[in-house]
Automatic annotation (TrEMBL):
All residue ranges annotated as the ABC transmembrane type-1 domain in the record: 37-319
A Gene Ontology molecular function term of the record: ATP binding
Entry protein name: ABC transporter ATP-binding protein
UniProt cross-references to SUPFAM superfamilies, sorted A to Z: ABC transporter transmembrane region, P-loop containing nucleoside triphosphate hydrolases
Stretches the record annotates as Disordered: 593-615
The keyword Metal-binding appears for this protein: no
Gene3D superfamilies the UniProt entry points to: ABC transporter type 1, transmembrane domain, P-loop containing nucleotide triphosphate hydrolases
Subcellular compartments: Cell membrane
Organism: Paenibacillus terricola
Cited CDD domains: ABC_6TM_exporters
Alphabetical UniProt keywords: ATP-binding, Membrane, Nucleotide-binding, Transmembrane, Transmembrane helix
């Protein structure tokens, strides 16, 4: 395969080796050294027992039969049955111990992965598909899990037995053993050759699983859109293309395996032929006993076990290696928005926000802001208006440090955002936007998300301030009503009020309203406006609105066009200026003209969201 890419970028990095995978797994395993020591003791005992059983065969053939030692036969029976019973008990302990070590490693890995994902910046999530990320945390970790639980134990036992037996065989007959071992490099070479190809195919399989998961995620969340455009057929074809890629890659794996296994079997038979022919020759010459040959053939099987098993579990191992690569791609990606090591806690702020010569572009595309200056005074309502795509939401994202500007600086009360810790910054910012995210859970849980320490009374007070108590009380289970996918469906306005209650409970110093009332009908808007008035009271507020009716009370309004401020002032001042703001205003309130009282009441309600968005 051509090498993997650093996640979400074009940069190529070396593919992870299977050895690297085992080393990393072992680094975690080391932490559970007690369980590890017990398993190693069990495995050593298993190897010794596996070694002892063929010795009993040899003793029977070489000594007991020729000596007609009837009285010793029961010892052989006890020896074999005792060894078998011990093998069973030791097998039980080593299997369960190694499996639990493995599961613990995966538990840590999955949690590390989740923690790492949470620490990534917003740009990372812009770049990567949700379904693909989900598939890495679930499917790829599962594959690794399968390998650890089913194959690791086998491999480790085999390696122990291999070493013990190879040493014994070299001691008994080094020449015969070396001849035998000559087949091993061929097996390793074949395994490597096929392994590489299989891994490439498995990587395709896993990528296609991620594609399928991504498609499903999009299609299921967008099912209304698909139906409204009657695009079912089109989506079905797109889905089939993705599953076809999965099928092709799987068939390729099966073909490789079908060719690989007979080759390994053939090499195993060469080993058997060597032992039989050369051993018989030695026996006929009187240099070796028949019992030793029989024991040698039994050892040969044990010696070849690692390779034979490896060929069987190679599927799982290569699949795990491909999954491991995909996991490492995430773990190896670093967030760009990070805290400096010497970052300080941002103290309780008044909320004066200053953009000083800020340059910003998403993904090194053409810039959204360039040498951009803006000051939001503490305790005031500042509004941003302007055409779609002019950069209003970008300004909000930069304040919350979802992205870092490429040039210039942004500060709050004189603290550069890059010099303060992220939680201390974001704790003081509340964002209420048009895209409301409520989690599956009760209304109580959703409001309490604003402050996980809040008491029930605090939650009730926040709901009261957000004008949400009436509709909450109308549900039979009140605050315990489940919302989200498994619960009741809330209207846009109800969701909005819950999100406002959540922000009120958070009690941040700075509030950002991004299109917060854009999609509401008149009646909801009335409720929301009252709730918002509660939320904005006494805080530093940035209000982004398409509806000019919602921002006339702002202390200062900035009109933004293509990332530049073209006008600023109060509503009245801007109307007098008779520039871009007035133009936007007249588009929204044609009949009221430039009357200053317009829009506070009915005029604003006549304009639809679509019209407003089009501005
Ligand atoms: N995550 C992103 N990745 C890349 N480009 C983006 C991203 N978000 C916004 N942009 C681009 O940045 C520019 C400014 O977008 P922004 O969302 O700030 O505008 P806006 O004024 O808030 O628009 P609207 O009123 O339509 O919401 C647009 O050209 C947009 O395409």
């Amino acid at each position: 395969m051509g090498g993997m890419r650093r996640f979400g970028t074009g940069e190529k990095v070396k593919p992870a080796s299977i050895f690297g995978m085992f080393v990393r797994i072992f680094a975690h395993v080391r932490l559970q050294w007690k369980a590890l020591v017990v398993s190693i003791v069990c495995l050593t005992a298993i190897s010794l027992l596996q070694f002892a059983i063929p010795q009993l065969t040899r003793i029977t053939i070489d000594h007991i039969i020729p000596d007609q030692a009837y009285s010793k036969l029961y010892l052989i029976a006890i020896g074999i049955l005792g060894s078998a019973a011990l093998l069973g008990v030791l097998g039980y302990f080593s299997t369960s111990l190694i499996a639990s070590i493995g599961q613990k490693v995966l538990y840590d890995l999955r949690n590390d992965l989740y923690r790492h994902l949470q620490s990534m910046d917003v740009a990372f999530f812009d770049r990567n598909r949700t379904g693909d990320l989900m598939s890495r945390v679930t499917n790829d970790v599962n594959i690794l899990q399968q390998m650890i639980s089913s194959s690791m134990m086998q491999l480790v036992t085999d390696l122990f037995t291999f070493t013990a037996i190879a040493l014994y065989m070299l001691w008994i007959d080094w020449l015969l053993t070396l001849l035998l071992l000559a087949t091993f490099p061929c097996m390793l070479f074949t395994t490597r050759l096929f392994g590489k190809r299989m891994r490439a195919s498995f990587r395709t399989v896993q990528e296609s699983v991620a594609d399928v998961s991504d498609h499903l995620q999009n299609a299921l969340t967008g099912i209304r859109l698909i139906k409204s455009f009657t695009a079912e057929q089109y989506e079905e074809e797109r889905f089939a293309k993705r599953t076809q890629r999965n099928m092709d890659a799987n068939i390729q794996v099966v073909r490789l395996r079908a060719a690989y296994e007979p080759i390994i079997d053939f090499l195993n038979f060469i080993g058997l032929a060597i032992v039989l022919v050369f051993g018989a020759w030695l026996a006929m010459k009187g240099h070796m006993t028949v019992g030793t040959i029989v024991a040698f053939t039994a050892y040969l099987r044990l010696l070849q076990n690692p390779i034979r098993h490896f060929s069987r579990i190679m599927n799982t191992i290569q699949q795990a290696a491909a999954g491991y690569e995909r996991i490492m791609e995430i773990l190896g990606t670093k967030a760009e928005v990070v805290e400096k090591p010497d970052a300080v806690r941002l103290p309780q702020v008044d909320g004066r926000i200053v953009f000083d010569k800020v340059d910003f572009a998403y993904n090194n595309d053409s810039g959204v802001l360039s040498t951009f200056d803006l000051t939001l005074e503490a305790g005031q309502i500042t509004a941003l208006v302007g055409s779609s795509g002019s950069g209003k939401s970008t300004i909000a994202h930069l304040i919350a440090r979802f992205y870092d500007p490429q040039g210039g600086s942004i500060s709050i009360d004189g603290f550069d955002l890059k010099a303060v810790t992220l939680p201390s910054l974001r704790e003081q910012i509340g964002i209420v936007s048009q895209d409301i995210i409520l989690f599956n859970g009760s209304i109580m849980d959703n409001i309490r998300y604003g402050n996980l320490e809040a008491s029930d009374e605090d939650v009730h007070a926040a709901a009261e301030a957000a004008n949400a108590t009436d509709f909450i009380a109308s549900f039979p289970q009140g605050y315990e009503t489940m919302i989200g996918e498994r619960g009741v469906k809330l209207s846009g306005g109800q969701k909005q009020r819950i999100s406002i209650a959540r922000a009120i409970l958070k009690n941040p110093r700075i509030i950002i309203l991004d299109e917060a009332t854009a999609s509401l009908d008149t009646e909801s808007e009335q409720h929301i406006q009252e709730a918002l008035a509660q939320l904005l009271k006494g805080r530093t507020c940035l209000v982004i609105a398409h509806r000019l009716s919602t921002i006339q009370q702002a202390d200062c309004i900035y009109v933004l066009e293509q990332g530049q401020i073209v006008e600023s002032g109060s509503h009245a001042e801007l109307l007098q200026l008779a520039g871009r703001y007035k133009q936007l205003y007249e588009l929204q309130f044609p009949r009221k003209g430039n009357s200053e009282s317009a829009g506070t009441g009915t005029a604003g309600k006549k304009i639809s969201h679509r019209e407003a968005k089009a501005l």
